[in-house]
Inverse folding.
């Protein structure tokens, strides 16, 4: 009896410690769990979480979206901001939304988008030239760049001067998300104060901007072949269109902005890799941007950045029925987490995983580890090729003209919310080449 009581107290203590870790150091929590084995059951406060870090088991889960659904606590919180859009919809609704959006991300459209991406990157380069050597926030500039590209490419709109408002609202939503997700309440989004109240205010601001964007488009007619046109020409009602626009505002710019921000930090700390990239892009043209192997070192830098700093650092699913993951039984309703960041940093799969080594992507022998920056299976991110092309063009255009040099002494800490973001502004200066 005494031993059972001790075990119970020990389990309760571990559960409380894990809950605190989930709030303060979630990356380390998942790294520790991944080291314990391919599938580990962790008790995190009042929640039980099956953490799957084996690549084959993770693939099994992601290939079965009807067995392992998105009915998780985190997804419910995300729906409070995004509504029912491509990221949060399920089943027939998701399949129909995916079908509607797919034409906007096919190769012919990417060729059109590449011109917009290049134009916006050149415009940023001109602003950087005028800035001189003053200190600036790399992340802020990357957010503004990718938001401008996303709205022009996907919505044929420039947000009518409201880009800063959208960016601020999205950042507030993301900053509140993790705090709500780790609160030990059944419905933290319903609390009248704290992060839930800030979350609702930011969502309201975002919805108002989107309503004006859609109204502008309707006023000038819906002719065109961009993504917003596809939605307006469909049977989607106004709420569904709003949810899809909000989803794309987040998904189409936040992840790529973080990718580019982390890429500049890595290149600044690895001047040899930067020089090789600059040599490669010195004479690059628009045709190189679109060619599959047009800029191999630049692509390797992008892939290595995604490995070290995966934008979607963890993904979770809920078992719709009693199921098996490998030979492990999982009950219906159980939450299953795939710790992408931990898998990308596992030395069983990646040699020297903490090191920045783009060369590994140019050798078939050293690029065979698990790589899930955009997910996998039927629900793999629809915009993955859009994001990779955008990152390639941005690095090529800007690195050709500038060295981005980090201000010394910064922590460069990570903030794992919906995406893996810098915890603080990343400050840098520019040197023209």
């Amino acid at each position: 009896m005494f031993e059972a009581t001790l075990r119970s107290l020990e389990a309760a203590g571990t559960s409380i410690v894990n809950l605190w870790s989930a709030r303060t150091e979630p990356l380390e929590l998942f790294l520790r769990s991944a080291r314990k084995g391919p599938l580990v059951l962790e008790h995190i406060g009042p929640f039980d979480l099956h953490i799957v870090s084996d690549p084959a088991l993770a693939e099994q889960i992601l290939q079965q979206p009807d067995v392992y659904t998105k009915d998780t606590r985190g997804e419910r919180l995300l729906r409070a901001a995004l509504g029912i859009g491509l990221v949060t919809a399920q089943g027939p609704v998701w399949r129909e939304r995916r079908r509607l959006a797919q034409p906007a991300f096919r190769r012919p459209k990417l060729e059109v988008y590449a011109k917009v991406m290049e134009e916006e990157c050149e415009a940023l380069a001109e602003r950087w030239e005028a800035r001189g050597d003053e200190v600036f926030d790399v992340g802020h500039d990357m957010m503004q760049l990718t938001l401008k590209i996303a709205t022009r490419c996907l919505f044929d709109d420039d947000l009518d001067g409201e880009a800063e408002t959208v960016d601020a609202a999205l950042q507030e939503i993301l900053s509140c998300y993790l705090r709500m997700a780790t609160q030990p309440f059944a419905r933290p989004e319903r609390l009248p104060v704290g992060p839930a109240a800030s979350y609702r205010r930011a969502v309201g601001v975002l919805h108002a901007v989107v309503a004006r964007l859609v109204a502008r488009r309707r006023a000038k007619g819906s002719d065109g072949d961009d993504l917003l046109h596809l939605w307006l020409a469909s049977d989607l009602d106004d709420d569904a269109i709003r949810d899809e626009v909000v989803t794309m505002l987040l998904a189409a710019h936040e992840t790529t902005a973080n990718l580019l921000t982390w890429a500049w930090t890595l290149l600044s700390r690895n001047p040899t890799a930067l020089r090789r990239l600059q040599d490669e892009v010195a004479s690059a043209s628009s045709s190189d941007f679109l060619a599959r192997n047009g800029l191999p070192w630049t692509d390797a830098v992008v892939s290595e950045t995604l490995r070290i700093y995966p934008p979607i650092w963890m993904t979770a699913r809920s078992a719709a029925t009693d199921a098996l993951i490998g030979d492990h039984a999982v009950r219906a309703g159980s939450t299953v987490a795939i710790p992408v960041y931990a898998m990308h940093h596992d030395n069983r799969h990646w040699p020297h995983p903490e090191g920045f080594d783009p060369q590994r992507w140019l050798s078939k022998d050293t690029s065979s580890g698990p790589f899930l920056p955009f997910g996998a299976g039927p629900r793999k991110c629809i915009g993955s090729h859009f994001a990779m092309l955008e990152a390639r063009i941005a690095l090529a255009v800007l690195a050709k003209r500038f060295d981005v040099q980090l201000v010394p002494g910064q922590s460069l800490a990570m903030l794992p919310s919906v995406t893996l973001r810098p915890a603080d502004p990343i400050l840098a200066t520019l040197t023209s080449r």
About this structure: DSSP finds 17 helices and twelve strands in the chain. The longest strand covers residues 39-44. Residues 47 and 100 are 36 Å apart (CA to CA). The two ends are 74 Å apart (CA to CA).
